[in-house]
Design brief:
seven-stranded mixed sheet; 37% helix; alpha/beta; 12 helices; 390 residues; 14 strands; three-stranded antiparallel sheet; homodimer
Chain lengths: 390, 390
């Protein structure tokens, strides 16, 4: 079996190893749940405290202009856009992923007014499924992943998909499915919550239409961090304002009686932006400074490869996660009939993952801060726990 | 004319004077814009820093249960409810006021399915107007304030009003208009953004139906703080889930494919709650500990009375704010044809208010931290500025 020394050697040779120092991680904890809540980046506490003390406390109302509060949704959006392969001016950071899903479902509907149907897949993340159902009603087709291309007929307005499956870690081919949908005349709304920050994305290059995602997983923006929406520039001229609030108005402080949408993605803004959370997220994104997403993806795959190999060698649990690298994101799931019990025992050994019903153990490998020895030690603990439970 | 010594005497005799020490206010600044962004309460910086460092940084994913994150929207909602005259279980803190307006407009629609029309008034806050227009379309009647009772016929589903006018400070009789709407079979959706924390409210006693509001004005929750929604308990059984996201599901972690609404107001939750902002707001509400809203209202009216009197004595600008105490909130507006210029000069003298088009100078008197001498000094500065400008 692979010895721990191999993992140590991989860490020694890892050009990204130093990035872990950009995070505050508790001693002795192996944190493999960054796919659910990213770890705390260094600098966030101080930056948010300063925003509270100086911007809010001293600058008060003037901070909206003087400290750049008003433009934060767009400024932070552009920084996220850089991780999405999106040129500036196509992303805003705001609201929750769920609220943004609602908005872009309505945008999708408005982009294809002559078409009634939405298509999604079985097992999509619940909030995506609920909101697609809410917007499309009886016009929602829920099909198996393999049947998606065949479901794209000329009555389909939009394909609504999560790029990386929250339960299995399986990853769609974003460019290929986007092209297939376009071939059928539909647009695609991608949920990139489990991709952004761990998987290189090239939305502009793929000709993507619409995307949403959260910022508290691999982007490490903090619990319930502001989410984001992307709309490709070619759709801006006809872009619907799906939740027309004052912040998305062309001239908010004119206080006009009727809504006039702001240009471009700003019209996706609705209410007053949450500044403290945007400051936290803005600072969190500094952890990506100078990082190549290609290098990050290579490390992510090396971590998950090592995990899958060690599990095969030492534990022998089945995994619904694709073994082919191109087909998975940055997490690995394992099946165990007593998954909650296994995870509770792992947590007692300071190995933190989570469970999803009915029988899935999830382990996320955030490549900015997870080490190869963490992988080895986690599987070592898992082997012991599974022996004890069985 | 009223001498400054009178204002000093009022401060000396003020039983609420000590509450100002619960805030961090910059030296030498007279802050009369708490109706737009409330001042920073003491303790918020430390509490948010601790939440970042300890809850997020150390407890990581376990904080959702161990640190009460999951219940914060309801816990904070109940604390706001206490300021609304609402029994527990009827308020959640979440999203922005605008998003919550959308949700409760849909709830109102669902509560009165046989009725097509919505009624609101000219000059409502823009976001309220835009969202009412968005939801009701051509079925929105926009009438003058005085014509509201007459507009309530049997086709009206909901009356949608802001309690205290953002521009003039005029305050509606919430109980009387609620009763009038009920008499016509309609429900009322109140926006209490410019009331809560400055005006005693008795939503349950008034038989109110629905209300929303922001938390960054007199509640001092910080820039873009989570907003809130109130739904009277008698409507809970038939309550629509207007933006059905995973956090409003009856069993979120069951990850069920179909939406089942959580009981009561929890179904108004949509996406993952913004924890850092909720922590800030939760701590900010400590500034109300032990404070009688009746006493707070008395001070608010005394402050605005003094301001109106001093302006009459020394400046002579017209005010659209009702002089009768029961008819106004906690702000006073003055008209000047060169309002932006006047306000800029005031700000240079460290007197902070704001302007609203076309000609309105706004001054907010947050009774938790504004002193009588602040009122005197502000009018003194205003008198000088207006002389210089004219």
């Amino acid at each position: 079996v692979t010895p721990r020394a191999d993992a140590e050697a991989l860490d020694s040779a890892d050009p990204l190893a130093g990035l872990r120092r950009r995070f505050c991680l508790p001693d002795g904890v192996i944190y493999l749940d960054g796919n659910s809540l990213g770890a705390l980046p260094d600098g966030v506490e101080a930056r948010v405290a300063a925003a509270i003390r100086t911007e809010w406390g001293s600058d008060l109302i003037a901070a909206w202009d003087d400290d750049g509060w008003w433009d934060l949704p767009v400024a932070v959006g552009d920084r996220i856009g850089a991780l999405l392969g999106a040129a500036p001016g196509q992303v805003v950071a705001c609201d929750s992923t769920s609220v943004n899903l609602y908005k872009l479902l309505r945008v999708a509907e408005a982009l294809r007014p002559g078409r009634a149907r939405f298509v999604t897949q079985h097992g999509n993340f619940p909030t995506d499924a609920y909101l697609a159902q809410h917007v499309a009603g009886k016009c929602l087709d829920v099909v198996a992943a393999d049947d998606l291309p065949g479901a794209l007929d000329t009555d389909v307005a939009a394909l609504v998909l999560t790029h990386v499956d929250y339960r299995t870690g399986a990853m769609h081919d974003l460019a290929a499915l986007t092209a297939a949908a376009h071939h059928a005349g539909a647009v695609v709304l991608w949920d990139l919550s489990h991709s952004v920050g761990a998987v290189p994305l090239a939305l502009d290059a793929a000709g993507a239409d619409l995307a949403v995602g959260c910022s508290y997983k691999y982007l490490n923006g903090g619990p319930g961090a502001p989410a984001w929406c992307y709309v490709a520039r070619r759709h801006h001229d006809t872009l619907a304002a799906p939740l027309p609030g004052w912040v998305g108005h062309a001239d908010p402080f004119a206080m006009e009686p009727a809504y006039r949408p702001a240009p471009g993605v700003r019209r996706l803004l609705t209410g007053t932006p949450g500044i403290l959370a945007l400051r936290a997220l803005d600072t969190a994104l500094d952890a990506f400074a100078g990082v190549s997403l290609t290098d990050l993806r290579a490390k992510s795959l090396a971590l998950t490869d090592l995990f899958l190999r060690l599990v095969d060698e030492r534990v022998g649990l089945a995994s619904p996660t694709p073994h082919r690298a191109a087909d998975r994101g940055s997490q690995v799931s394992l099946c165990h009939p007593r998954a909650p019990e296994v995870m509770a025992a792992l947590v007692r050994r300071s190995v933190i993952g989570d469970v999803r019903p009915p029988d899935v153990l999830r382990f996320g490998f955030a490549p900015l801060y997870v080490r190869y020895v963490d992988v080895w030690d986690a599987v070592d603990a898992l082997a012991g726990v599974v022996r004890d439970v069985d």
